[in-house]
Amino acid sequence: MNHHVKPMTLIKEIDYGTPSPEITDATKMVTLEIDGQEITVAEGTSIMNAAMQLGIQIPKLCATDSLDAWGSCRLCLCEIEGRRGTPASCTTPVAPGIKVTTQNPRLANIRRGVMELYISDHPLDCLTCGANGDCELQDMAGAVGLREVRYGYDGENHVFAKRADGQANDMFKPKDGSNPYFQFDPSKCIVCSRCVRACEEVQGTFALTIDGRGFASHVSAGMDEEFLASECVSCGACVQACPTATLIEKSVLDLGQPEHSVVTTCAYCGVGCSFKAEMRGEEVARMVPYKDGGANEGHSCVKGRFAFGYATHKERVLTPMIREKITDAWQVVSWDEAIDYAAKRLKETQAKYGKDSIGGITSSRTTNEEVYAVQRMVRAAFNTNNIDTCARVCHSPTGYGLKQTFGESAGTQDFKSVDKTDVILLVGANPTDAHPVFGSRMKKRLREGAKLIVVDPRRIELVRSPHVEAAYHLQLQPSTNVAIMNAIGHVIATENLIDRKFVKRRCEPTDFFRWEEFIKRPENSPEALEPITGVPAEQVREAARLYATGGNAAIYYGLGVTEHSQGSTMVMAMANIAMATGNIGREGVGVNPLRGQNNVQGSCDMGSFPHELPGYRHVSVPETRAVFEKEWNVKLAAEPGLRIPNMFDAASDGSFMGLFIQGEDIAQSDPNTHHVEHALSSMDIVIVQDLFLNETAAFAHVFLPGTSFLEKDGTFTNAERRINRVRKVMREKQGMPEWEVVSRIATAMGHPMRYNNAAEIMDEIARLTPTFEGVSFDRIDELGSIQWPCNEEHPTGTPVMHTEEFTRGKGRFMLTGFVPTAERSNRNFPLILTTGRILAHYNVGAQTRRTDNVAWHPEDILEIHSSDAELRGIKTGMKVSLASRVGATTLTAKISDRMPPGVVYTTFHHPVTGANVITTDNSDWATNCPEYKVTAVQVTVSNHPSEWQAEWQEREVENKRIGKEKKLEPAE
Ligand code: SF4
Ligand code: SF4
Ligand code: SF4
Ligand code: FES
């Protein structure tokens, strides 16, 4: 069977009209008759949905199965034997024994009348309309047999700018094209309110309303604002819900209606949304979220839905290039030449400096199969364990912390689990910006009444927005996470809130008692820690009580937890309180990292760490090595290799001289840019595999052009351990899959590595990795997606982990003493800078800045508290200088009370900002994850440089002279 491309050609998914109720063991089933056919469905199902299950399509306009029934268009009427009138089938639930008629002359007549009214106020430009071929209004006109429209446009209408008498038509509203990705043409609107409901129910933004009454009613993005200026976050839910061409993607207007589609996975964040790439030939007409997508269930955010243009951006490099020295010009070569050259120089470097003088870095942006290929090349062809991943700089503490306590380096729940949560403890994460589709899901649960505790130095949107409000916002000082979590643990332990039955049954007793004794100590009390955290003790106590006693409680966290010197400690502190309160091992609870990049989970699973083979198994265990040695026919090194920072140190020392870098701009995203640049320029051979000539490529000798996600065949694993298929929708623009390039280099170096397709790589992973045992492309195609572990015991995967026992057997409480960070504010750098993301952009913006997402957030903004601003004479809109111990940059300031005094905040989507300031030598004690979230800084009005700034500038000149690695710092 050819696994290579498995297009799913469907364009339209079945629309059942109304949501289908969840069926559980407790669900009552109802049997009824529709048009003479008997059917049994779950109680609460609408007649419309039940009819659709029989294949009977009742005409409809205002109903769609992603939204609750509304009942406004009156097209879906039916008759029920023995009942009067013609009820709407979308709002009428099934009942036992009823007999429904969906079609007869009377119903047909009423429907035609309804349609006639709609059409009489609708432009009849179907042939030239962008939705031609995808318009439900057109379909319904056909379905009800509309043959004539008796009313003209002489009276009131929304179609023409001028009335028949030549006067201006007040009802008419012009097109709004302000959003870069979709157009709003009110003349085509049938006021079905699907868009308004989608924005409320699915996205949770409430940007749209129906203004006016009766005939004058119309859709408005708030006070008749343009879409771009409104609250709209451009998720696309309204566009998807709109049955007409009123809301339509500009790409469809440009390219025409798609003719086939392929289901694939978004390549941006760790939510891992499934999309139908709707195609015209090899061009993407639009990306539409896939209703059966396990992670997103038909929802999307602006990035996955619209920001795919970077994949075909003109700056992409499509030919391999080589050069002798980094000062030489690039030379375009054939694939064969580039591969041979890379292999030759890697071997030369090993011959000169030893086997362990080279290594590789994998990327969390690429597929599991591509990552696996790189780690195999490094371990088997380079014969060293010098392999690490960029996950080192974001979620390595998650892996460490959860492995220590639960025995598995991954989040415990699926996203759906949040629907059963009563208390959400959200720590150092901003899901509405960074994980928007999960953020919408969380908001929905909060609107249903779940309680929220936010632990964050910044008042994120979820703390207070029109429809969601947190019960507690523990606004702690940056870097005091562990202190606050210990204080919460202290309250749980001293106020008798421990779930002793759970702890006794599921956890190691000795470790628990040790923890209990430790956490109960007075120094861990909220009162003792208040001066450190800045959070009133009583608030901490109340939040702790809510977490422990409010029903199902779940922890969700992000980089605000991990990117700290105590990142691993904090992960363990959260695992401790989850175990202490029995909030683990079932739906609605758990400890869940929100992963930044699309395949962070997968790249870690695939054996990207220097000490672990795929499946998190230590390289020092002979039995584990033996499995791989047999498959690969090579003897493997038993000692862990170098981590990224050690690679750089060794490069500066002259002992690490060759590096293969897969899809990762380390010169830009790693801490201490100068150090990284020095290390890279010290090496004999640097190979970069990427889409664009990034900053790192400036130090490379070989550039191997990469493929975008639209050209890849493989899998990504999201934050819920869900393995999703990435399917190729167009040929590789540079001519070769990335895994093949890697395999060829390995082969040229003497380790034969041959795969016919990506499916074979997954088969190898499954053979060698117990948690992936049951995974194959065929199996994923069959099930849609699979959450690992997937093996004999769990043949369809594992949505919720640790249900009966922990992966490590008994859960292990760990001691989590609070140690303040070494990064302190002082006289010269009196403020603490913390960072985050904004919805429209992604990381350093290499992709999103190459799309129309630049319409939002054209620059990084520095948020500063009014008291800090006043002290410095700073006003919103002013250019300010932001300086840390290692550099300075200029930003526009915005006065904001989202942070406490003493803390400033910015996003780092524009490379120059981050590289110049966020530089830290501090890192997580266990995993070396850099402490990006805490940097001591000073902020000044930029055209009035202060004394120390002048001094810093002088020193910078001196630094340049004496060499970047021996940096001078301004005197304290
Ligand atoms: S794009 Fe999303 S946020 Fe914007 S109006 Fe539509 S549904 Fe609301
Ligand atoms: S814009 Fe579309 S979805 Fe919204 S009310 Fe008009 S026709 Fe319905
Ligand atoms: S939430 Fe994440 S995975 Fe989903 S569409 Fe947005 S960026 Fe893509
Ligand atoms: S589809 Fe039922 S009333 Fe509109």
Automatic annotation (TrEMBL):
Keywords, comma-separated and alphabetical: 2Fe-2S, 4Fe-4S, Iron, Iron-sulfur, Metal-binding, Oxidoreductase, Repeat
Protein name: Formate dehydrogenase alpha subunit
GO-annotated molecular function: 2 iron, 2 sulfur cluster binding; 4 iron, 4 sulfur cluster binding; formate dehydrogenase (NAD+) activity; metal ion binding; molybdopterin cofactor binding; NADH dehydrogenase activity
InterPro entries: 2Fe-2S_ferredoxin-like_sf (IPR036010), 2Fe-2S_ferredoxin-type (IPR001041), 4Fe4S_Fe-S-bd (IPR017896), 4Fe4S_Fe_S_CS (IPR017900), Asp_de-COase-like_dom_sf (IPR009010), Formate_Dh-H_N (IPR041924), Formate_DH_asu (IPR006478), MoPterin_dinucl-bd_dom (IPR006657)
Residue intervals of the 4Fe-4S Mo/W bis-MGD-type domain: 259-315
Keyword Cell division: no
Disordered: annotated span: 948-972
Top-level taxon of origin: Bacteria
Keyword Phosphoprotein: no
Lineage of the species this protein comes from: Bacteria, Pseudomonadati, Pseudomonadota, Alphaproteobacteria, Hyphomicrobiales
Gene Ontology terms: cellular component: membrane; oxidoreductase complex
Family according to the record: Belongs to the complex I 75 kDa subunit family.
Residue ranges of domain 2Fe-2S ferredoxin-type in the record: 28-106
Compositionally biased region (Basic and acidic residues): 952-972
GO biological process, one term: respiratory electron transport chain
Annotated Pfam families: Fer2_4, Fer4_7, Molybdop_Fe4S4, Molybdopterin, Molydop_binding, NADH-G_4Fe-4S_3
Domain 4Fe-4S His(Cys)3-ligated-type residue range list: 106-145
Annotated source species: Hyphomicrobium facile
Gene3D superfamilies given in the database record: 2.40.40.20, 3.10.20.740, 3.30.70.20, 3.40.50.740, ADC-like domains (2.20.25.90), Dimethylsulfoxide Reductase, domain 2 (3.40.228.10)
Stored CDD domains: fer2 (cd00207), MopB_CT_Fdh-Nap-like (cd00508), MopB_Formate-Dh-H (cd02753)
Domain 4Fe-4S ferredoxin-type: 180-211, 223-252
